[in-house]
Specification:
Layout lengths: L8 H4 L4 H23 L4 H8 L3 H8 L8 H9 L14 H14 L9
Helix pairs in contact: 2-5, 3-4
Length: 116
């Protein structure tokens, strides 16, 4: 039976929270670059020229080779398009935070807790 994800598909694939967030960000950034390339009818060679990168990098993006390109690199490419960046982070619900904190406490039973 298929599992439906309610959050980050990379977490569902058992990547840790940090890595899954980075992978999700890279996937999103790659999709935005692909949209730009398609919207402007660019070939891989013309896109490479526009972005000032080797053509294989555009091929990696078009083919979703997420492990080949960093978030920083993708952000740099998107900045060249002149588009607007919008940043967002949603705080976890109490239930989500409690689940993460519980898992942390189980892994670190001797961790002292302090209140600020």
């Amino acid at each position: 039976m298929a599992k439906i994800t309610n959050s980050n598909v990379f977490e569902d694939l058992d990547f840790d929270a940090s890595e899954s967030a980075d992978l999700a960000l890279r996937a999103y950034l790659m999709s935005e670059i692909r949209k730009f390339i398609k919207k402007n009818d660019l070939t891989q060679m013309r896109a490479a020229g526009f972005f000032g990168v080797p053509q294989p990098k555009i091929s990696y993006i078009n083919n979703g080779k997420i492990a080949k390109i960093s978030s920083d690199y993708l952000i740099g490419l998107l900045a060249k398009t002149g588009g607007d960046f919008r940043y967002s982070f949603s705080q976890p619900t109490k239930k989500q935070a409690a689940k993460r904190l519980s898992a942390f406490k189980q892994r670190n039973p001797y961790e002292r807790t302090t209140r600020n």
